[in-house]
Design a protein that fits this description.
The chain has 15 helices and no strands. Helix 7 packs across helix 12.
């Protein structure tokens, strides 16, 4: 709590100083003070141990032995998210995009608005602060839409993510004894787990905020229906991707400096994105792998090719679209193995196990109810893919009794699975 309070006071005060300063060197002083302290907090609490142990291992390979001092503290909750809120606020003031907020309560709400504090979405002051500043009147239709999104978020988390987690954990935690086909199944289960878990949290956060008359930034737009990796990253964790684009990629030169600069900046973005997720080489390799995936579209300048949702206005995709989605999904599943693995050796042994003779064997894990749930989930997501979330418009034209039966069925299914499975923490709480 101390870090959150200190960070809030720091950025509030430095924001006012930057906004009021007429002298450019004074503005720079307050700007860099805020940036340095915020990044310093992240560096100490989230990355110090990683760098200390990595340096120790590198030195030991040269024949020297050192015992680095490590910090034995629990990672402060939400630090990656509220730090990025503060950074964007101060940067926007420095760039004259907004004026400093003088009301400390308003600014504090922007930084620590409870639905998004621990796992986002990462908000911008230009988007959220004006909504906090104005008087809000309860809007029944908006609140109803929020409740509907909360319901779908709970379904994603409890019915999809937590059920997939049970088998994903079982397979990943015992990967040395699994066949290649089982390992593929484990990676697919984790792929749906992390989507249901994180997008489910985002749905709950957006829906809760809507009850208070606040519209948060959309964080997911059906990413597993993407036709290439560039489209996937426009649809996955949108608030983080756009944050890195606006505050890192564009300041580095963006796409203006030719192909080499685009390639360099893209690699920087993905490596930093991987590092943001955690102080582990697995996250960095995950970032590099996604950068390699996206390189062909960056070099060939086709990364803005698929801007509209797939098969818009149609019931089924074309064969070309289906194959493109399948390839993109397969590459994503492969990358998630690094994200889920405990360390690099675990990830490499997991991959080695997949690409073995046992890949063609019949999986021993065959939970029929889970496959049925996933098929139902994919179908509902596909039908509702042109909306903000899958069930936003679903049932609105049905008879009221049928619509309420649909909602009741979702509630009962959520309740049933919440009792029948072990509670799983939200994955992104660790970041």
């Amino acid at each position: 709590m101390f870090l959150l309070i200190f960070s809030t006071f720091l950025d509030y005060y430095t924001g006012i100083k930057i906004s009021e300063s007429k002298n450019n060197s004074v503005k720079k002083f307050w700007f860099w003070l805020s940036i340095s302290v915020n990044i310093g907090f992240l560096g100490i609490f989230k990355y110090y141990n990683f760098f200390a142990t990595s340096f120790s291992e590198a030195v030991s390979n040269l024949g020297f032995q050192i015992n680095p001092y490590t910090i034995k503290v629990i990672l402060p909750i939400g630090i990656s998210f509220y730090t990025f809120h503060g950074l964007s606020y101060v940067i926007d003031i420095y760039k004259d995009r907004i004026k400093a907020e003088k009301d400390f309560i308003n600014y504090s709400v922007f930084v620590s608005f409870f639905p998004l504090l621990v796992a986002g979405p990462i908000e911008r002051a230009t988007h959220l602060l004006p909504q906090i500043q104005k008087k809000r009147i309860f809007n029944y239709a908006q609140a109803l839409d929020g409740m509907r999104q909360i319901l779908w978020g709970l379904f994603k988390k409890i019915v999809i993510a937590d059920q997939c987690a049970e088998y994903a954990n079982l397979i990943f935690n015992n990967s040395d004894n699994q066949s290649g086909s089982n390992l593929v199944l484990g990676a697919i289960f984790f792929t749906f787990q992390i989507y249901g878990d994180f997008s489910g949290y985002s749905d709950i956060a957006l829906g809760t905020a809507r009850l208070f008359g606040i519209e948060l930034l959309r964080n997911f737009a059906f990413p597993y229906f993407s036709r290439d990796i560039a489209e996937f990253w426009r649809r996955w964790h949108i608030s983080l991707s756009s944050w890195f684009k606006d505050y890192l990629y564009i300041p580095l030169g963006g796409s203006k400096g030719g192909t080499w600069m685009k390639v360099r900046n893209t690699f920087i973005i993905f490596i930093v994105s991987g590092f943001w997720h955690g102080a582990n080489w697995t996250f960095i390799i995950w970032g590099i792998l996604n950068a390699l995936y996206i390189m062909p579209s960056i070099i060939l300048n086709t990364n803005r090719m698929n801007l509209e949702i797939v098969a818009k206005g149609k019931n089924i995709p074309t064969i070309k679209e289906f194959l493109a989605m399948s390839l993109t999904f397969s590459l994503t599943v492969l990358a998630w193995i690094f994200f889920r693995s405990n360390n690099l050796s675990h990830a490499l042994s997991y991959l080695a196990g997949i690409f073995s003779k046992s890949l063609l064997s019949i999986p021993t894990y065959k939970p029929p109810y889970l496959f049925l749930l996933l098929c139902l989930f994919i179908l509902i997501e596909w039908v509702g893919r042109e909306h903000q979330y899958a069930i936003q418009k679903m049932g609105l034209t049905w008879a009221k009794s049928v619509r309420w039966l649909f909602y009741l069925a979702l509630v009962l299914v959520i309740y049933y699975f919440s009792l029948s499975s072990s509670t799983q923490e939200f994955i992104y709480f660790q970041f």
